[in-house]
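User: Reviewer 2 asked us to show a designed sequence for the structure in our supplementary figure. I'm pasting the structure tokens here. Could you produce the per-position amino acids so we can include them in the response letter?
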């Protein structure tokens, strides 16, 4: 028999019983890394600009095998900052699945969490405007529909969230809890562990470009220490933000590490080199240790 979720509340919506799973904020706080769905990491689903974008967006991978269409609502396409809300849920639910608190065959209608927990995770404040901005983010997630086609495999269409409800505190107009309905397609990917882990230092990133690029780095590098890619191809994977020359200028002038990665522009070849610093440092330590052992052996001979 499968194990039921640890915290289940049975509620009523329009005279219909629904199952609501309560998410403990400690799951995210104690997680050693964040989780994202692989499809969401490799595809430029989210806008890197804060200005509302209501255009229908079509994209195809450089090899032409993956095509998808983003259809936003009148309130605009979901942004990389809105995606942080999904990362909160993905990380929480992945932890619950690993702990056996959430079973694949147990139907869940809504996931409930405090609005403050989401705002903390997303590095938002707790003022009235911050909660209004949170509602706007949910509206964009609900209104953004993704249609994904993989050549010779499948075609699937789904919204980024299937619905939400705000629970307000008694006697006040302030948000208390948010109950979110995630699409079946997203839940299936989570249960099938179609996710990748990445550093929690992601939460410190503020630039839209950096947030998008930080999702591509672990997807591209994997267990490699170095991953080279042409600037134009990277621009395509980023979703063609602005003009290519503007993106080149940003890549050339950006400084500092991106989580555990460093991104270097090579003007001679117009390429970008993504370095996995953690793997590179491990290789250097192994090399130094090997040389020390060899030196010690020669001394004993």
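Assistant: Here is a per-position design you can include in the supplement:
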């Amino acid at each position: 028999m499968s194990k039921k979720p640890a915290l289940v509340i049975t509620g009523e919506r329009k005279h219909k019983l629904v199952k609501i799973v309560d998410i403990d904020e400690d799951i995210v706080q104690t997680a050693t890394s964040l989780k994202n769905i692989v499809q969401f990491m490799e595809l430029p689903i989210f806008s890197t600009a804060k200005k509302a974008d209501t255009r229908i967006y079509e994209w195809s991978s450089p090899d032409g095998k993956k095509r998808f269409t983003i259809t936003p609502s009148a309130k605009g396409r979901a942004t990389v900052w809105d995606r942080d809300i999904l990362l909160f849920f993905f990380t929480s639910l992945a932890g619950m699945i690993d702990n056996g608190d959430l079973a694949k065959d147990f139907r869940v209608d809504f996931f409930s969490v405090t609005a403050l927990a989401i705002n903390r995770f997303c590095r938002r404040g707790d003022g009235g405007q911050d909660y209004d901005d949170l509602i706007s983010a949910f509206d964009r997630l609900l209104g953004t529909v993704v249609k994904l086609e993989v050549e010779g495999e499948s075609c699937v269409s789904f919204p980024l969230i299937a619905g939400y409800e705000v629970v307000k505190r008694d006697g006040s107009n302030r948000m208390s809890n948010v109950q979110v309905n995630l699409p079946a397609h997203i839940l299936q990917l989570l249960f099938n562990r179609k996710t990748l882990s990445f550093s929690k230092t992601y939460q410190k990133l503020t630039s839209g470009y950096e947030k998008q690029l930080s999702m591509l780095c672990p997807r591209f590098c994997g267990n490699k220490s170095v991953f080279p890619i042409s600037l134009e191809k990277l621009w395509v994977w980023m979703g063609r933000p602005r003009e290519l020359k503007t993106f080149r200028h940003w890549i050339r002038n950006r400084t500092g590490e991106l989580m555990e990665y460093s991104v270097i522009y090579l003007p001679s070849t117009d390429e970008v080199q993504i370095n996995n610093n953690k793997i590179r440092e491990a290789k250097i330590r192994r090399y130094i240790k090997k040389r020390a052992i060899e030196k010690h052996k020669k001394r004993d001979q």
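For the response letter, you might also mention the following. The chain has two domains: 8-198, 208-300. The chain has a mean pLDDT of 85.
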